[in-house]
Amino acid sequence: MNSIFLIEDDIAIAEQIEQHFGHWNLQVTIASDFQQILHDFQILQPDLVIIDIQLPYFDGFHWCREIRLQSQVPIIFLSSRDQPLDMIMAMQLGADDYIQKPFHSDVLLSKVQAILRRTYEYSTHQTDSTLWNGATIDYASSILSYQNKELQLTKNEQFILKILLEHENEIVSRDDLMRRLWDDERFVNDNTLTVNVNRLRTKLKEIGLDDVIETKKGLGYMAIRKER
Fold first, then answer.
1. Distance from CA of residue 90 to its chain's centroid?
2. Radius of gyration of the chain from Cα atoms?
3. Of 70, 121, 122, 223, which is most buried by a Cβ count within 10 Å?
4. Using CA atoms, how far apart are residues 36 and 78, in angstroms rounded to an integer?
5. For the chain, how are helix, strand and coil distributed in percent, rounded to 5?
6. Other C-beta atoms lying within 10 Å of the C-beta of residue 24
7. Distance between CA 20 and CA 22 in Å, rounded?
8. With the C-alpha atoms ordered 200, 202, 207, 213, is the resulting torsion angle positive or negative?
9. pLDDT of 20-56, one tens digit each?
């Protein structure tokens, strides 16, 4: 049974999620002390975190940042805030998805199930590594190594990179990426893909791998293997 840590101060919404997820063999623990979120996370060691932005004491961005300092557990933001900057901030902090309130319980469930599948089933079957432009990508640990530097990838970033490398020097359409990432593109926010790709590209640039993922306007993305 997968475990979910739900950081939501609206008890009606929290109990609705807990009840709905329980029918699908997902164990939900609802946060009760909003000053001890990190402590409770460390004790629970959940398989996935769902977090609101507006919370007592510290906002969801703060707790996402704190969790990311010690874990690559999947994180989904669930918020009534609809400003693009909020979603961009969430993704830059390492969130895997951003869902706006009001939401349909089945849509949230589908997102959670898809992320759990690609995070844990994928990791279970993938223990190999890939060499690319002088970098080594270890799929088991989600670490990319390049010139004595290590880069920790989120599960989304790793999966996007893997798909692009499967079609090296070929264009992969946005639709294909979204289908592979979220299983059912009807539940995908197009901006989520853009933010994830941009974040991956920024991380690669920071360790010296610049211009290795190209955007083909109106078509998709391409991973470039440079001649050495």
1. 10
2. 18
3. 223
4. 20
5. 45, 20, 35
6. 12
7. 5
8. positive
9. 999 998 999 999 999 999 999 999 999 999 999 999 9
Write the pLDDT tens digit of every residue in 185-226: 445 567 778 888 998 999 999 999 999 999 998 899 999 987
Q: What confidence score (pLDDT) does residue 122 get?
A: 56
Beta strands in the chain (DSSP E): 2-7, 26-30, 48-51, 75-79, 97-100, 129-132, 135-138, 143-146, 149-152, 172-173, 213-216, 220-223
- Find the farthest-apart pair of alpha carbons in the chain and give their distance in angstroms, rounded: 58
Residue-level pLDDT at 135: 92
What Å distances lie between residue 221 and 37, 41, 87, 94, 170, CA to CA?
Answer: 38, 36, 22, 21, 8
The mean of the pLDDT values for the chain is 88
pTM: 0.67
Asked if 8 and 78 touch (Cβ cutoff 8 Å), the reply is yes
